[in-house]
Automatic annotation (TrEMBL):
GO terms for molecular function: DNA binding; sigma factor activity. It comes from Rufibacter tibetensis. GO terms for biological process: DNA-templated transcription initiation. It comes from the Bacteria. Residues 109-160 form the RNA polymerase sigma factor 70 region 4 type domain. Residues 10-73 form the RNA polymerase sigma-70 region domain. This is RNA polymerase subunit sigma. CDD domains: Sigma70_r4 (cd06171).
Length: 171
């Protein structure tokens, strides 16, 4: 498919992207921006499109991934908590300050014990994910299918949640 043909086909499909973009963003201006960014990425990455495959699905995938990446960027940026409003500053005498880390230490010991109770096949991928490995990296290192890795991490979380249910917050 030539660049001109590709451009023509993509431009004809642009209006069909708008409803899906609106469903993702729930804002008409943001939806227009998302469609525009999707089309820009499609034109820039035209060489990555395989002729004979579903162009519409490819465009929807670009749009969805663009939306997810933008959402993750926004939530990561706004997730830092400013605790200055919650901290009350009182002039205190250093002799009156007491630190009690016992309850935190008990909880941490319970967490470590719960992790140790996990079967090795669940504990290893869970701990790798916990320290920062991505699913694909864990899959490569353990020579397991990525679906198996995701499932084992899910099962480990489920078992840990059950084991540590005494620490759950009551709503």
């Amino acid at each position: 498919m030539t660049a001109l043909e590709f451009t023509s086909v993509v431009e004809r499909m642009a209006p069909t992207l708008r409803p899906a973009a609106y469903n993702l963003t729930r804002d008409s201006d943001d939806a227009k921006d998302l469609v525009q960014e999707t089309l820009l990425k499609a034109f820039v990455n035209r060489d990555k499109f395989k002729a004979g495959t579903n162009l519409k699905a490819w465009l929807y995938t670009i749009m969805r991934n663009t939306f997810i990446n933008h959402y993750n960027k926004i939530t990561k940026r706004s997730s830092s908590v400013d605790t200055t409003d919650y901290i009350q500053t009182h002039p205190t005498d250093d002799r009156m300050i007491a630190v009690n880390g016992a309850s935190g230490e008990f909880a941490l010991n319970d967490i470590y014990a719960a992790i140790e109770k996990l079967p090795e096949e669940l504990r290893t991928p869970f701990m790798m994910y916990y320290v920062g490995y991505k699913y694909l990296e864990i899959s490569d290192k353990l020579k397991l299918p990525i679906g198996t890795v995701k499932n084992r991490i899910h099962l480990a979380r489920k078992e840990l949640k059950q084991e540590l249910k005494g620490y759950a917050y009551a709503d």
